[in-house]
Amino acid sequence: MKTTGSTVLITGATSGIGLGLAERLQDRGDIVIVAGRRRALLDEIVRSHPGMHAVELDVTDPASIAAAAERVTQEHPGLDVVVTMAGVMLPEDLRDPAHLEVAESTITTNLLGTIRTAAAFGPWLAAKPDGVLMTVSSGSRPCRCRRRRPTRRRRPPCTRSRRACACSGPARPSR
């Protein structure tokens, strides 16, 4: 993977970490395309970041993803990195029967949105010598690198580097 001179599309880049990543990549000289569902916000980002590009893309809508993939690959044939960051974290109350609708909405955005975006851009990126598909998620799993003791208290997450931590190996089944 080349580390500079890339053309990068970032979904979910209209705020937060996604926008911060877009700004950082642009500062180092990459061509950056921010993607999001709110046109007015995309326009404001492009106005305040000269040279940055934008495309409307709603990860909950397969047709929107396909249209964005077509447009981006035509307008930016050098596209070689796609970062999927679009996601939601909606409050759920398991006592409320409506929580299933919230869960489905979360899964549609966070999981299916990433899968559909990867499917839309995957063939394009696979044809590139330095093509990269990167996904960012808030998902996690517990650290299992420390010896288990018969206790019910929760252990703090592992703070070791990925190389030093046994957690980076395959997931072990929960007991």
UniProtKB/TrEMBL annotation:
Region annotation (Disordered) ranges: 147-175
Superkingdom in the source lineage: Bacteria
Membrane-spanning parts: none
InterPro entries for this protein: NAD(P)-bd_dom_sf, SDR_fam
Matches recorded under Gene3D superfamilies: NAD(P)-binding Rossmann-like Domain
This protein's GO CC annotations: membrane
Keyword Oxidoreductase recorded: yes
Identification of the protein by name: Putative oxidoreductase
Source organism: Clavibacter michiganensis subsp. michiganensis
